[in-house]
Amino acid sequence: MKSIYLDHAATTPVHPDVVEAMVPVYQETFGNPSSVHQFGRKARSILDKARRQAASSLNADEKEIVFTSGGTEADNLAVIGTARANKAKGSHIITTSIEHHATLHAVEFLETEGFDVTYLPVDENGLVQLEDIKQALREDTILVSIMMVNNETGAVQPIAETAELLKDHQAYFHSDIVQAYGLMEMDVKELGVDLLAVSGHKINGPKGVGFLYVKEGTVLSSQQYGGEQERKRRAGTENVPAVRGLQAAIEVMEAERSTYQEKYLHYKRSFIQTLKDQEVAFEVNGKEETTAASIVNISFTGMNVETLLTNFDLSGIAASSGSACTAGSVEPSHVLTAMFGTGHPKTTNSIRFSFGLANNEDDVIEAAEKISQIIKRLA
């Protein structure tokens, strides 16, 4: 049976160029990058080059890049580190009800330390409203955290507009750009954001590596205690082979970004059109013009998430009911609940399909046809 992978928002296949770049590091460059001898210097050189590549991809300075173990650690360092370091200025944090759990659980933890958190609502398309942000701002607000692209629906949030709103406010602005980084061009000077979290395995790089962009002058405290790596912001010996793989993934991403964006949008449209041609009862959650090219979230009328995913898997199709970090959970999606309300059928009958390197148009159409057959059989 042929397997078709439609879950790139959960993780992506590692690009062959990335594997090729990492293997020699494992074989030849085993030195600790903090060591001053030649073995350490060789490892440090790899880190330096990767840091410059990551910074260049955002039009940032290399001193503003902190390597982490992935997006979750980057989000935690940004949210918890910034809040704790700036508590003397206030204790109010603004985020949204649809954030990735790396951010949501971080701010929930901060509530136990006495911070006051405002969770902004979203409309039925999963979009945060600028007026709501404006109304939520207080004099003691020290941090605003809004993801750029939602991992469940692909909804693209007004990040640059929010940054403009915060321009004259003391609050730092953090954005999780894990789902956006691979497809959208980023310029931190134009965006006006203070902190950006990135994950390697969402851009065809290795798992276990990512980085946090920290704008020069941003005050945050380290969340790990140990050595003085990463300019004292993130203790621990850096994962040199993974960082080299991340660099290679960024190089491929920058060379192919526009092609990928066009290709994945075409896949999404072909997928939806095939479902329409098969006369399946469904609704797309969100609008194409306000969602990322690679993600579509679809509600199948009268269906059940667990039943659908089980039948899809038995037919060789990999998809998701939402965040991969809650896979196996029978809880309704917190994102769709925020969009449609508690108990709405869409919170338990919607599937996320996400397109990427593992796909071609024939596979996408074949998957949509198989899915249509399953829906008709279960109806």
Can you put this structure into words, describing what you see?
- With 379 residues, this protein is an alpha/beta fold.
- The protein folds into 2 domains: 4-12 and 256-378, Aspartate Aminotransferase, domain 1 (Alpha-Beta Complex), CATH 3.90.1150; 16-251, Type I PLP-dependent aspartate aminotransferase-like (Major domain) (Aspartate Aminotransferase, domain 2, 3-Layer(aba) Sandwich).
- The chain has 11 helices and 12 strands.
- It has helices spanning 16-28, 38-58, 71-85, 101-112, 130-136, 159-165, 188-191, 240-277, 305-314, 334-340, 361-378, and strands at residues 4-5, 65-68, 92-96, 116-120, 141-145, 172-176, 195-199, 210-214, 282-284, 295-300, 317-318, 350-354.
- The strands form 3 sheets. A 7-stranded mixed beta sheet has the order 2-8-7-6-5-3-4, sandwiched between helices. The chain has a 3-stranded antiparallel beta sheet with strand order 9-10-12. Strands 1-11 form a two-stranded parallel ribbon.
- It is globular and about 65 Å long.
- The chain starts with a strand and ends with a helix.
List the helices and strands and how they pair.
Layout: E1 4-5, H1 16-28, H2 38-58, E2 65-68, H3 71-85, E3 92-96, H4 101-112, E4 116-120, H5 130-136, E5 141-145, H6 159-165, E6 172-176, H7 188-191, E7 195-199, E8 210-214, H8 240-277, E9 282-284, E10 295-300, H9 305-314, E11 317-318, H10 334-340, E12 350-354, H11 361-378
Parallel strand pairs: 1-11, 3-4, 3-5, 5-6, 6-7
Antiparallel strand pairs: 2-8, 7-8, 9-10, 10-12
Helix pairs in contact: 1-8, 2-8, 3-4, 8-11
